[in-house]
Amino acid sequence: MTTTPDDTSSPQPDIEQLQAEIEQTREQLGETVDALTAKLDVKSRTRARLNATKQNAGAKLGEGRAKAVELSSSARSAATTPDGKPTPPVLVGLGVTVVALVAATVLVWRKRR
User: How far apart are CA 51 and CA 36, in angstroms?
Assistant: First the structure.
């Protein structure tokens, strides 16, 4: 049994259609190879991760500095009067610290004698 061009029972794929499918398969294969190459390139992946970590650390450092400046300003304004002199609670705390240091020094000095 021979097939004739008029026989439609077994469609033969068009050559252009086959070439288009081959080209599409080549493109997909190329994309797959590129993806695998990128995945296996440890050096580039390490550099990218290092750069991302540096940027993240830089951003967090900036946030930390801003917070430190804010807290420093807040503490300074809470510990001083508007004209820049220490507030009475700060003076009391300073006095207590000095007395405690003197007392500790005297006790240590007595034990050594």
Answer: 22
Reading phi first (left if > 0) and then psi (alpha if -120 to 50, else beta), residue 81 is in beta
Maximum Cα interatomic distance, the chain, rounded to a whole number of Å: 125
**Model confidence at 98: pLDDT above 90:** yes
pLDDT tens readout for residues 3-34: 555 555 556 668 889 999 999 999 999 999 99
Q: What share of the chain is helix, strand, coil (3-state, %, to 5)?
A: 80, 0, 20
| Token digits of residue 100 | 């405690």
* Amino acid in position 33: V
d(CA 106, CA 112): 10
Rounded to the nearest 10 degrees, the angle between the axes of helix 42-79 and helix 15-40 is: 50
Report the predicted TM-score, pTM, of the whole model to 2 decimal places: 0.41
